[in-house]
Amino acid sequence: MDKLVVQGGRTLRGEIEVSGAKNSALPALAACLLTSETVHLAGIPDVRDLITMRQLLEHTGATIKPVNGHLEVTTPSIVNPEAPYELVKTMRASSLILGPLVARCGTARVSMPGGCAIGARPIDLHLMGLERLGATIRQEHGYIEASAPQGLRGGRIYFDTITVTGTEDLMMAAVLADGESILENAAREPEVVDLADLLTKMGAEIEGAGTSVIRIRGVKSLRGATHRIIPDRIEAGTYAIAAAITGGDLVISNCRPDHLGALIHKLWQAGVHIQEVGRDSIRATATGAFRSQDMSTEEYPGFPTDLQAQYMALMTQVEGITIIRETIFENRYMHVQELVRMGANIRIDGREAIVAGSRKLTGAPVIASDLRASASLLLAAMAASGETVIDRVYHLDRGYERIEEKLAGVGALVERVS
Ligand code: EPZ
Fold it and tell me: Which helix (H) or strand (E) is 380 found in, with range?
């Protein structure tokens, strides 16, 4: 099990490049199951979750060929419409193949994902939506069996809770359904829009992606396409906070400033100087005069829950009290106790974390618990004095491509030890 050893106190300066978005690449790969023709995907990040998704696709009958930096995915037919427990238990986003499998071959058997560190994370809304499109759902022995032998038919789906992969799963189910479907209270994340762009290139008829109401007219079949995945806004946001927390100055390239509005606004308010550099870069410069800024996570375009832990690490360094409210997941404070071990003063009260800032952090041995908590600990370690050893960095490897190389390239003292 790898660890990261970090010597804190270094200021980050220079240019750092963002990879393709993990949370866009996952549904894009799942969408390849919807056609027997070849789909070319560029910008797929080399992170663990995508290796898992590739294994899942190959298990169902897809062949995946890396061709000069992008993936060629061809699924001549679905030979095994199932997602086995041993793969699903390592990645809950496996439920993204549920919709495509039912749409493509009328049946799917997907392991229930089970809980995870940040919450129960059920997939009841995915199943509700499939039933609204005419599938019958059975659950037994820890597996979901969805079937629609006569194919899916268009329907109206209302999401009680906004769900990102729920919206994506059902968009992929609806594109081959007979008739029109409407998804109401849909997620508006850029990754949903990116998936709709890919599906449209494949011949789907979708309107309203990026808004709360998505209309889909089913078509008979989809064709192959070529698509580049959008840059990872969460990786970009993590590096902007890294510049701030180390008192540094970073140009973050290959990103989409228009996907980072809430973070850029919040960092400006907190005293971080952020400017857009062209259409695909931002420059984050610490000004030394930080102010504490309360924050509440919201669905897009609000402040992303996936940047909450990283933002909290920054707020331990600023004067005053910061109230952080996590409204999306019920247990996304696993990083708090580890930050406290490094000297932070944070108290949890229900959904809120109260951060008493301007605390000097000192390096310590810490343990990562989930993907974004690991990023938070890495940011704190770079700001702390002394050495931090972060254990279980496989969590980090799920969603950040070569993060220690990228950070070392702009001055961080971080190395991976097995
Ligand atoms: C996606 O997860 C992301 N993952 C998460 O990123 C992200 O934190 C989350 O959206 C919120 O933005 C991928 O896109 C692969 P949700 P998802 O369904 O779709 C409840 C990361 O770090 N809910 O939008 O699983 C759920 O419990 C990961 O990259 C139901 O109740 O999240 C949560 O409270 C972590 N029933 C809320 O909705 C359902 O059927 C939002 O979850 C589905 C969700």
Answer: helix 371-383
> Does the CB atom of residue 119 touch ligand 1 within 6 A?
yes
Determine the distance separating the centroid of ligand 1 and the alpha carbon of 238, expressed in angstroms: 19
**Cα–Cα nearest to 83, from 74, 71, 93, 73:** 93
Burial 40-71 (b: 16+ CB within 10 A, else e): bbebbbebbbbebbbbbbebbbbebeeeeebb
- For the segment 272-319, what is each residue's pLDDT rounded down to a tens digit? 999 999 889 999 999 978 999 999 999 999 999 999 999 999 999 999
Write the class of the CATH domain 3-19+231-417: alpha beta
Break the chain into its structural domains and give their ranges.
3-19+231-417, 22-228
Single out the residue of 360, 315, 358 nearest to residue 335, CA to CA. 315
- Name the one residue in this structure whose structure tokens are 């946001």: 237
Report CA-CA distances (Å) from 186 to 9, 23, 136, 160.
Answer: 43, 16, 22, 10
CA pair distance 377, 357, nearest whole angstrom: 16
Helices vs. strands in the chain: H and E counts, helices first: 14, 24
The whole-number average pLDDT for the span 256-263 is 97
Q: What is the pLDDT of residues 3-14, one digit of tens each?
A: 999 999 999 999
Q: Which residue among 163, 188, 332, 333 is best mutated to probe the pocket of ligand 1, counting the most ligand atoms within 8 A of its Cβ?
A: 163
Give pLDDT, residue 121.
75
User: Matching CATH topology for 3-19+231-417 and 22-228?
Assistant: yes
Was domain 22-228 assigned CATH 3.40.50.620? no
> Each residue of 60-90: pLDDT tens digit?
999 999 998 899 999 999 999 999 999 998 8
For tokens 């004067």, name the residue: 319
Instruction: Show which residues are catalytic.
Output: 116
Report how far residue 278's alpha carbon sits from residue 254's, in angstroms, rounded to the nearest whole number.
10
